[in-house]
Specification:
The chain is of the alpha/beta class. 45% of the residues lie in helices and 14% in strands. The chain has two domains: 9-118, Serine Threonine Protein Phosphatase 5, Tetratricopeptide repeat, CATH 1.25.40.20; 219-408, Vaccinia Virus protein VP39 (Rossmann fold), CATH 3.40.50. It has helices spanning 6-22, 26-35, 51-57, 69-80, 95-102, 105-127, 132-140, 163-169, 173-186, 192-197, 221-231, 248-254, 268-276, 292-302, 318-332, 350-366; strands at residues 201-203, 206-208, 214-217, 238-242, 260-265, 285-289, 306-311, 333-341, 369-377, 400-408. The strands form three sheets. The protein has a five-stranded parallel beta sheet, sandwiched between helices. A three-stranded antiparallel beta sheet has the order 1-2-3, with no helix packed on it. Strands 9-10 form a two-stranded antiparallel sheet. The protein binds S-adenosylmethionine. S-adenosylmethionine binds next to strand 3, helix 12 and strand 5.
Length: 410
Amino acid sequence: MPTQTSSEDDILLAKRIISASERHDLAALTVLLKTGSANVQDPTATIATSPLHAAIVACGKVEDGKAGDDAVKTVELLLQNGAIWNDLNKEDDTPGCIALRLGQKKIYEIMIEAGVRAELLFAKMEALGLGQIKVDVDVEVDEQVEPAVEKEDSGDEVEEPSPKKQKISNGEEPVLKEKIDEKVLDDVSLDNHAYLKSQLRYQPGILLDSSDNAVMMDWETQIMQRHATTLIPRSGLRVMNVGHGMGIVDTAIQTHDPAEHHIVEAHPQVHQRLREQGWYDKPNVRIHEGRWQDVLPKLVAEGVVLDAIYYDTFAEDYAALRDFFSDYVVQLLAPDGRFGWYNGLGADRQICYDVYTKVAEMDLYEAGFDTEWEDIEVPAGLHGSHQWKGTRRPYWTIDVYRLPVNTFIK
Ligand SMILES: C[S@@+](CC[C@H](N)C(=O)[O-])C[C@H]1O[C@@H](n2cnc3c(N)ncnc32)[C@H](O)[C@@H]1O
């Protein structure tokens, strides 16, 4: 009888791990995970491609019964053994997406907590210069969700490749640099500097970059107006908006009669638009041309104090938002002032949105802010509507916008 090769052994072990996960057989799974990985893949499956996917699919719809204790413990055991929260199956679903669709709320909450833990840990490791560990995970599992790239986008610097890119290069930096350049040329929203050099198009109801990304759309008008109202409770306040875009939020800010209205904007074509629309001549309006990273240190040095700050840029990632509030809002905001920001990261996938909303709330708390949330339904029928025609991808596919208002913890 022929002996099994190690790869046949591996396939068999993977199948047994996925099968034990599907049966919520904790005893078998505990033994199998001593030698096997919680991230094995079944290439023949479409939905239950990983142990986590298998364990969650097997819970079935909540109408037919809530996930039992063993199902919950199976998911927890897999996560404790390093199962990746945002691994994708062939239908482009994470395990959390499946839990949400099945209505299995408890499992969904566990997946959100796992996402939050992972993202906070990765951020800490990046801060300590240990980002390489995340890289290993990213490279091993190539089918994994990247947060949505709209608004607070991946601001990977071409000049300083992220650890992930360094890992992919395997030391072949010139090749890597070309690959990154190609990617950024193809999609300027991957790099803030590339975006700021790119050609913008103002069209009715939409602002597009040269890669056809929607930078701003007019379906967000209600959201912008609400941001202005929640940040500015009375007239005569000192307000700053970072990122002018289509001018929707700045127009709303003007209706609250501010004593000072600072606008920080970095794109030359947006400056041109501000000029054409007379913003430079409006009383109490002060326009600061440049990236907020360069402008705000000067305002701090000038001793500027603000009652309300709003942040909505483009082609910047979550780390930029975190730097913005922990480095600058803390210095510029009056003690009883309010801070608001466009909460759009991960808005093309509910679980990513929920994870990033929580991560932001925790980081804000660490920086000294309380957060209050207001839920706003986005216009019905937005997803799949003609409004996205001609755009690279819809950056918003979920039903509810969670509007944050931050104040200093008392
Ligand atoms: C999504 S739009 C803002 C839309 C705006 N809230 C409105 O109501 O129309 C983002 C804006 O941020 C600007 N921007 C991007 N990166 C920036 C940076 N680092 N500093 C300042 N402005 C930036 C973009 O040029 C763009 O005008």
